[in-house]
Amino acid sequence: MIFVFDQSVGNSGYLTFFMGRAATTTGFHQFLSHAYNADVLSFHGERTGFWEGNLHVTKISSGSKDEPVVLKANQWLENTLTSNEAFAEDWMWVHNRWKAQSTLSQNLNLNYPKTLLEETKEFYNWDTLPKKNRIWLRMPDQLGELIKWAPFIKAIATSRPDSEITLLVPRKFTSLVEALQIADKVLSLPKRNTAFYPRIHKLKDEFPDTYYQLTESMSADFEAKLINAPFRHGMCLPGSNRPFLTDTFNVDPGWDEKKAH
To answer: What is each CA distance from 244 to 69, 99, 211, in whole angstroms?
Structure first.
């Protein structure tokens, strides 16, 4: 039997890591291997000319019920992509294996119906998960509001140990936030002058994956749009509109912030 294993399978697959990032993986090849003691082989083509090419075959595992076939197949693909430039250029990156944990309800945790996280750590001999998921938080402009979010940021560090957390803060609070040691990186907002928005726009080259907007203003939301993370989240109070964010949490009209931040 031949099938494509190297694509995202959404919630029906196993949560593991690929290229150091959380990804979903089918377990069908492992099931077949364990059920029938079947060998698992990889096949990929190499174009050599018009309607001409070579077929490369590699044995990933021999029939055994103890083989971690999912992880060995992922490792083969990782090694092939990083060692073969032509293969990497032809691989269908649009499969987007990393779209796991991308929905608003999943983004801040690694809870998953089927997970191979502990097996992945053991397979790669990792003491901790690699921090390749980039979560950015735009902190409020008021000191009191900024401090109130500290427990939330600490909770993210616990629930997403694979994430590098970056805080974007007003310049006057940079030293204070660095002293709190609640994030991996602290970036100061540029000075408010004619170069402000061009400098904000350059931050897109840091490629944040998720951007949490913790302040409420159209100007700050426009900053989020310029930085252009694929997922930009924030709260939406009654009567407000936040078109520059990709996802919003609609706050209950009866919510009293003085009683529950």
So the answer is: 43, 21, 12
